[in-house]
Specification:
The chain is α+β, with helices and mostly antiparallel strands. The protein folds into 2 domains: 112 residues, Peptidoglycan synthesis regulatory factor (PBP3), Domain 2; 227 residues, Beta-lactamase. It has 8 helices and 18 strands. The strands form 5 sheets. Strands 1-15-17-18-13-12-16 form a 7-stranded mixed sheet, with no helix packed on it. It has a 5-stranded antiparallel sheet with strand order 3-2-10-9-8, sandwiched between helices. A two-stranded antiparallel ribbon has the order 4-5. It starts with a strand and ends with a helix. About 4% of the residues have low confidence.
């Protein structure tokens, strides 16, 4: 017998807002994602090719974080600064201002990259890890494909002066999502507002974070800015408020002010027009399912992932959640066995289906108990 049990999702309709079709930002291309649900809330030519420029540095940091996590690199390790790296300390480039022959820790180089956007620090880190920047760029592109960045190629560690360095705002969003999910502690570097480099043979240099949203009262903890004359201003940004995170990437803003203003507008649009609804947390017991011929009459079930859905505030009442299974479930049942489905429907359309897994083993009863249960079922319908 097919059983369907409906779960109640408490929904409060707060305000009614205009549809996505009425919303527009002044950027050539853009994308906005609700982080926990993965829902794309706004997009404008998100797969059009761009030069990622300094947003490339997100991947440079990810490669280092990966190696630190695996134990192949540590923050206190020092790299010797080459002439190649030093050359990018000259005027006209974003720099950490390292000198040839300096020995700089990995942590300082990472802060120089993330906070000060130092191109010189990128080259120093790349050479220290891979021997050459070209070899490091290969590592970056391989990692990009692993993440799912199908339209990205990295040609260097900083993103400057190379037309083979290409990506899309969707791919930058995927990269930003990966960074935040996989490295929540290291991601805190991106929210530091300044970095002081106690350089060798000179006075300390303090530089501020170049991401303008850090200085606004939005809750932004930021990712990376970018400027290229051919594409003007760009920004990958992230905001967290009340446990909810949004990721926005835009390219082709006309001015610095427009980059800040329109990126803020995009993030606020996501906050005010949509709500994030928690359906269920991973491993959390959901419901008891009836068991047939088991030593226990029921078994608890769970899903093995967090389930969130992002819904327009004016339409949240159209979201419904149900449990479906063939029941009663015949024993024996093994822990983690798939025993049903959790279905999420929005406006009569299935928007998510997840396996329901048993929380524990349920052994089968012995032959005498089995006969007694069968008799009870035939007479009383009692399992």
């Amino acid at each position: 017998m097919i059983k369907i049990k409906f779960l109640t999702v408490l929904i409060t309709i707060l305000l009614t807002f205009n549809s996505n079709a009425a919303f527009e930002i002044k950027a050539r291309i853009a994308i906005l994602q609700d982080y926990l649900s993965g829902k794309i809330l706004y997009e404008k030519d998100p797969d059009k090719s761009i030069y990622p420029a300094s947003m490339t540095k997100i991947m440079t940091a990810i490669i280092a974080f990966d190696l630190i996590r695996s134990g192949d690199l540590n923050l206190d390790e020092k790299f010797l600064i080459s002439e190649n790296a030093w050359r990018l300390s000259s005027a006209g480039y974003s720099s950490m201002f390292i000198m040839v022959g300096d020995e700089v820790t990995v942590e300082n180089l990472l802060k120089g990259i993330i906070v000060a956007s130092g191109n010189d620090a990128c080259v120093a880190l790349a050479e220290g890890i891979a021997g050459t920047e070209d070899e490091f760029a290969i590592m970056m592109t391989v990692k990009a494909k692993e993440i799912g960045m199908e339209n990205t190629n990295f040609a260097n560690s900083s993103g400057i002066n190379n037309t083979d360095n290409v990506s899309t705002v969707r791919d930058i969003m995927l990269m930003s999502n990966y960074l935040i999910k996989e490295f929540p502690n290291e991601y805190k570097y991106f929210s530091e507002k300044e970095f002081t480099w106690d350089r060798t043979g000179g006075d300390p240099i303090t530089q501020g974070n170049r991401n303008p949203l850090l200085y606004k009262n939005l809750g932004a903890d930021c990712i990376k800015t970018r400027y290229l004359a051919v594409e003007k201003y760009s920004l990958a940004s992230s905001l967290e408020r009340n446990g909810r995170r949004l990721i926005a990437v835009g390219s082709g803003f006309d001015t610095k002010n427009a980059r800040s203003r329109e990126s803020s507008k995009l993030l606020i649009y996501g906050l005010t027009n949509f709500d994030l609804i928690e359906i269920i947390k991973s491993k959390q017991p959901i419901e008891k399912m009836d068991v047939w011929l088991g030593k226990e009459k029921s078994v608890n079930v769970y899903v093995d992932q967090d389930v969130f859905k992002t819904i327009k505030k004016a339409k949240k009442k159209l979201l419904k959640v149900s449990i479906k299974y063939n029941g009663p479930i015949e024993a024996p049942i093994k822990k983690d066995q798939i025993v049903g489905k959790l279905k999420v429907v929005f406006d009569q359309e299935l928007v998510g289906e997840y396996d329901l897994l048993a929380t524990n083993d349920v052994n089968r009863v012995n032959i005498f108990s089995k006969l007694l249960k069968s008799l009870n079922y035939l007479i009383w319908g009692d399992v």
